Amino acid sequence: MVNSQVTGGVCSSRSCAGCGGHIADRFLLFSMECYWHTSCLKCSCCQAQLGEIGTTCYSKGGMILCRTDYIRLFGHTGACSACGQSIPASEMVMRAQGNVYHLKCFSCATCRNQLVPGDRFHYVNGTLFCEHDRPGASLLNTHLQSNPVLPDQKVSFTL
């Protein structure tokens, strides 16, 4: 969400996505590819004016939400693929091949070292391996390349 000042005090070609009216205010908001009066961009649940309570808003299921109501309504991002426990929507997670993990659970199946952003890893049949413990690594070291080795993947954070 961007709070912009209109130069000259008048914005001739912009209409509000909330009320449809012309925006002639000194300030306007730009969110979700639309312009808004500061009083029109409100949380669908609590009616808080989003420009006054922060710099972010969320949109899901046709609703515009403040952070608090977004977490209240859609509070969990799912279950961790390693431990099966739920993951709160506000918690940072790691993702691999469409699966979601707690940060502490994103670790090598062999040595149990936690993988961090920048580490190379392999994902084999739903299991994570660090670069050192990847399947077929010992075969490569002895130049017996009978098993194909998966391409390296890099770890990345997701919010």
Structural description of this entry:
The chain has three helices and 13 strands, in the order βββαββαββββββαββ. The chain has 159 residues and is mainly β. Strands 1-2-3 form a three-stranded antiparallel beta sheet, with no helix packed on it. Strands 9-8-13 form a three-stranded antiparallel beta sheet, with no helix packed on it. The longest helix has 7 residues, at 67-73. It is elongated and about 65 Å long. The model is unreliable at 2-12, 139-152 and 154-159 (pLDDT under 50).
Topology (elements, then pairings):
Layout: E1 2-5, E2 27-31, E3 34-36, H1 50-53, E4 58-60, E5 63-65, H2 67-73, E6 76-79, E7 86-88, E8 93-96, E9 99-102, E10 120-124, E11 127-130, H3 137-141, E12 153-154, E13 157-158
Antiparallel strand pairs: 1-2, 2-3, 4-5, 6-7, 8-9, 8-13, 10-11, 10-12
What is this structure, in a nutshell?
Mean pLDDT is 76; it is low at 2-12, 139-152 and 154-159. The chain has helices at residues 50-53, 67-73, 137-141, and strands at residues 2-5, 27-31, 34-36, 58-60, 63-65, 76-79, 86-88, 93-96, 99-102, 120-124, 127-130, 153-154, 157-158. Helix content is 10%, strand content 29%.
SSE series: EEEHEEHEEEEEEHEE
Let me know the average pLDDT.
76
List the strand order in the largest sheet: 1-2-3
Number of helical stretches of at least 4 residues: 3
Unreliable segments of 5+ consecutive residues: 2-12, 139-152, 154-159
**Rg computed from alpha carbons, rounded to a whole number of angstroms:** 24 Å
Quaternary organization: single chain
Report the sheet-strand fraction.
25-35%
Largest sheet, in brief, is: 3 strands, antiparallel
Helix content: 10-25%
- The backbone outline, from C-alpha atoms, is elongated
Total strands: 13
Judged by helices, strands and strand pairing, the structural class is: mainly beta
Distance between the termini: 17 Å
